[in-house]
Amino acid sequence: MKGYLDNPYHSKVHAQDVAQTCNFLLSKCKFIEIGQLDEQDIACVLIAGAIHDYGHPGLTNAFLINSRNELALTYNDQSVLEMYHPSQCFKIAWGNQKVNIFENLQFHKYRRIRESIILMVLSTDMAHHASELAITNSRIAAPDFEPNGKDKQRLMDLIVHSSDVSNPTKSFEIYKQWTEKVLAEFWLQGDKERDLGLPISYLCNRFTTNTAEAQVGFIDYVVKPTFACVLGFLPAYEPFFQNLDKNKAKWQELIEYYKQQLASIQPK
Ligand code: 8BR
Ligand code: ZN
């Protein structure tokens, strides 16, 4: 966890939270049984959850691309951060024998594990969210759907991606704290974009973003469709799925409050 920076949101606590949520979906929601995961699969999911934002600079892919950052140049603007996080982790592992958990694996096992972890971290790129979710939904509905066979990796990808956006399925008290953190980070980016004369990214303008409205949209367009898909093979997540409507109703009640807050902080 050392390489996680002290960002408001993308910190080691977020990584631990995602790894813990993955563990919950694996064990309490029985994905281990449903997908017939072996020890290696389980380790891969937990490692992917723990490393999925490793070294996150607290800036989005869009910012890195627009500001012509070194990382965007390295990864040709494609899933810049999601390429960077596992790349850093594997480099660290192979650069230091003491921490290399892969060292004693046979060639083919290592190749399989490395591929699986990289696929899961790449699945956390929100740019691929809608297209991948559509494919996963159609696989779950297909007559030849095999959660413990040819569809297993796709479902493992969804376990990590859904855990990454699972805050709105938790209690409102916890969810609200994560929301404040993610927006604090976005607003620091927006301040940088303003200073650099770059376009201010979606949700990154502290003077115009209504926190409650943003969360209603996030629940409706991202989190609810994601967990509706998860319920298709993990019905035990249902009680948490129900939190989405409860939490959305709470944000709806707060929209007016945030409107007034915004009106009081308008720049002169
Ligand atoms: P990452 O953690 O991989 O960045 O993916 C989660 C993304 O979902 C955030 O970067 C942000 O774009 C969006 N998001 C929003 Br909007 N509200 C969020 C919230 N309350 N918790 C987590 N992510 C949120
Ligand atoms: Zn994340």
Automatic annotation (TrEMBL):
Pfam families attached to this UniProt entry: PDEase_I (PF00233)
Active site: 10
Chain ranges of the PDEase domain: 1-258
Residues annotated for AMP binding in this entry: 10-14, 53, 164, 215
Name assigned to this protein: PDEase domain-containing protein
Entry keyword annotation includes Metal-binding: yes
Species, as recorded: Paramecium tetraurelia
GO BP field: negative regulation of cAMP/PKA signal transduction; signal transduction
Record carries keyword RNA-binding: no
GO terms, molecular function: 3',5'-cyclic-AMP phosphodiesterase activity; 3',5'-cyclic-GMP phosphodiesterase activity; metal ion binding
Binding residues for Zn(2+) 2: 53
Residues that, per the record, bind Zn(2+) 1: 14, 52-53, 164
Keywords for this protein: Hydrolase, Metal-binding
